[in-house]
Fold this sequence. Notes:
46% strand, 8-stranded antiparallel barrel, 1 helix
Amino acid sequence: MPGGPPICFAIVLVVSAAGSVEAEPIPPEMVGIWATEDAVMRGTLLFEGQAFYLGADGVAAWIAGPPSVGVQMQCSYEPQFSAVNCTTIETDGQVHSGRIPYDATSNRFVVEDQALVRRFDDFDEKTRRALEGSPN
């Protein structure tokens, strides 16, 4: 294909933290965009591999591709486990929760055998809007 591989976007509805139960704030060293070492990113958007987008307010998204597919999450910090606990609500109403451990020594999130390294130290509004599919 001329000019490289086809461009794929993940459209994710990022959940709002408004009305959420009071939780431990996400520590600054965990906030940002994390991806597998072999992930292909164009700016802050994932095109291949896996990425975890985590805001200071606990708003999060997990994206994998190709093709890029994402899931929205709301996360809270669990200091006793050095992890974030994330909840996902499926379109059919099913609720799933899981813990994503953080290794402070290597500055990585580790999920099963996948290490995610920090690519960006913020999950900014521009990236949130891009993942939501909003033009503004």
